[in-house]
Design a protein that fits this description.
single chain, alpha+beta, 6-stranded mixed sheet, 4 helices
Length: about 220
């Protein structure tokens, strides 16, 4: 039975060689197409993976560029900040600054003093009249108190001078009171022709650093 069937099969194949060839070709095409499809799907997966990785890399590169830009802006800001900080380590600069204010007010009509010095870096109050070598590089906020008896225009000149300083300066307190002149019956001065004076207390702060001594800071 097996031999008969095998013989029939052989005869069938001999008589239908073109059909057999077509079947073989179709089978080979099916295998080839299936294999190629698997390869294509694998390639697509690789392309998708590569695309995701590429997107991640581009995103990371963009973030790095942003970080580099932010760092540059920070360095520029830091340089500008240092430039506008008063060097409290330079006692000569401090003296020049106080003399500048006294020239506006007049030495006999004002009292300018440091009322508070706060070390922002170490978060504590310090004194500038001590050895400040351990605070070199620290940022400070120094409060000045000015008690004066002067005309209103002179007081305004002082405030404008503070505003025009190349440092971070902030007026924290303004207290104005009318100044009453002590007069006697013999005093014939015509006060109507004189600009009235005021008693004022001004508290202002300056941002600075304890820098190395030297340099022109005022």
């Amino acid at each position: 039975m097996n031999a008969l069937d095998l013989s029939k099969i052989k005869n069938f194949l001999r008589k239908n060689i073109p059909c057999v060839i077509l079947v073989v070709i179709n089978f080979m095409l099916f295998v080839f197409i299936h294999f190629r499809q698997n390869q294509t799907e694998e390639m697509e997966r690789k392309i998708d993976t590569t695309s995701v990785k590429s997107s991640l890399i581009e995103k990371q590169m963009g973030e790095l560029k942003n970080i580099a830009s932010d760092l540059k802006n920070y360095k520029n800001l830091e340089a500008a900040l240092h430039k506008q900080c008063f060097n409290f380590g330079n006692r000569t600069a401090m003296y020049k600054f106080l003399v500048k204010l006294e020239k506006i007010l007049g030495k006999n009509s004002s009292n300018i003093a440091i009322s508070n010095t706060y070390d922002l870096t170490k978060s504590k109050t310090i004194a500038l009249n001590q050895d400040t070598s351990e605070y070199v590089g620290d940022f400070l906020l120094v409060d000045f108190t000015v008690n004066l008896q002067a005309t209103f225009s002179t007081t305004i000149t002082l405030l404008k001078t503070l505003r025009e300083q190349p440092y971070f300066t902030n007026v924290k307190k303004l207290d104005f009171k009318e100044h009453i002149e002590n007069t006697s019956r013999e005093d014939t001065t015509d006060f109507s022709k004189k600009e009235p004076k005021i008693n004022a207390t001004i508290v202002f702060s300056i941002l600075g650093q304890i820098g190395q001594p030297g340099g022109d800071n005022a």
